Amino acid sequence: MSTQYSKYDSVAFENFSKKILNELTQDESLTMTLSAEETLFSRISKARVRQITNVAQASIDYVYIKGNKTLSFTLPYKAFEEDVDLALKKLKISREWIEKLPDDPYLVRPAFYGITKEENLNALPSNDEMLSGVLDYASHVDLAGMFASGDIVRATINSAGQFHWFKTRNFYLDYSLYNNKQKAVKSLFAGSTWDALALRENIKDSELKLSLMDRDSKIIERGSYRVFLAPSAVAELLGTLSWGGVSMGDHQRGNGSLKSLWEKTKHLSPKFNLTEDFSLGMSPRFNDRGEVAASSMPIIENGLLKNFLTSTRTSNEYKVETNFATDWEGMRSPVIKSGSLARENILKELGTGLYLSDLHYLNWSDRETARLTGMTRYACFWVEKGEIICPIQDLRFDESFYSIFGDALVDLTNYSEIIPNTGSYSQRDVGGSKVPGILLSEFKFTL
Fold it and tell me: Could you give the percent of the chain with pLDDT greater than 70?
């Protein structure tokens, strides 16, 4: 199982695309966006490989425009000549269908957004070698999870001449360790370079947490507690903010969650800084239209809102300036600036309260006031006087974003973790975040 991939390359995609684009008439325009991957997926249970699959798949999203009308369709892409015939047949049908459609009032026409090529293709060991390392280090524990490794491609080309290509190679081990009581500790080991020593330390850290899960769980009464949220839990909170929190379109429609921050009637902590930063190399700067966002853009700076994510479509509708966000106007490569809390001082500074490794089932409980709700998950502990005492039974929280990253924010850790998107429902996701842990003076639990 080699990690050297060549099936989907920029020259082949460009040559294929030009065969389609050359068939357009003067009053037609077209944007073609490629999503492709070559991935090894391996399911692991009890530290043994139970299922292994190599996936090579690609599709192209076509956005066809004629006059003021637009029509979209998706076709598979195998880099074969018959793909050209299929696309031209679909284009012919689209010419008939588009005449029956209404005009698009906020139409975004293709433009020339330059030509770029970015490939982050660090050499990785073979999949056999990486998997063997996982199984060797976990041979004495009940490890269950998914190992994935391979190349991901995103590219876009249009009839105005722009062409952008992004290809990245990475891996992740998304796993849980289970004890005899079937209690679990969840962890993630991921990156674009392989470090066997770091993998071993990651699993050893999970084993340590799992040993604490053998203790009887404590029932925590509802109320407010001093809390430390590990980076994985912070990443979950940050992900929820992309559901309308930083979208200019949602803000303009009255569905946004940071209205009070925009109007400066509420504030966040000056310690909180959030940036969209593509230097992580986990997501392309260009969107599906080929528009290229700034390499770095502050969203919240010293607790003040600096920018919403604004797509060109939203720009056309509300007469505001675009910053070339995607149409869904969510964060693709967010980074929260770290603080001063050292890893070895976390429990001491927490004192008595809750150490939360993971959160899940997050959603807005009151979008207008930026209130979030969710559940604790996996390795979450009761801490007294700087010492972990026991695990806790799961709790539901309901807390305001203005408290979490505002009045209650005591400090952020002086280290951060890169947490890639591990979704793979129809294809492996790109993107991820870089976040520290946070210490809060209070965090409200309702159940």
Answer: 98
Q: Cα(169)–Cα(175) distance, rounded to whole angstroms? A: 20
Q: Which residue type is seen at 13?
A: F
Length of the chain: 447
What burial letters (b/e) apply to 145-180, b meaning 16+ CB within 10 Å?
bebbbbbbbbbbbbbeebbbbbbbbbbbbbbbbbbe
State the average pLDDT over residues 317-327: 97
3-state DSSP call for residue 43? strand
Helices 81-97, 10-21: inter-axial angle, 10-degree rounding: 40
What is the DSSP code string of 211-247? HHTTSPPBPPPSEEEEEEE-HHHHHHHHHHHTTTTSB
Which token pair is 406?
A: 């505002």
> Which alpha helices (H) appear in 76-119, and where do they start and end?
81-97
Q: What is the mean pLDDT of residues 155-173?
A: 96
User: Is pLDDT of 21 > 90?
Assistant: yes
Helices (DSSP H) in 46-126: which residue ranges? 81-97
Name the amino acid, one letter, at 155.
A
CATH of domain 10-212: 3.30.2290.10
Q: Which residue has the tokens 């430390």?
A: 228
Amino acid letter at 422? T
- Residue 211's contacts (CB-CB under 8 Å, 6 or more residues apart) are none
Residue 70, CA atoms < 13 Å, CB-side half-sphere: 12
pTM of the model: 0.93
User: For residues 365 and 346, what is the distance between their CA atoms, to the nearest angstrom?
Assistant: 29
Query: Which ranges in 267-338 belong to alpha helices (H)?
Result: 312-318
What residues does each domain of the chain span? 10-212, 223-445
Cα 115 → chain centroid: 25
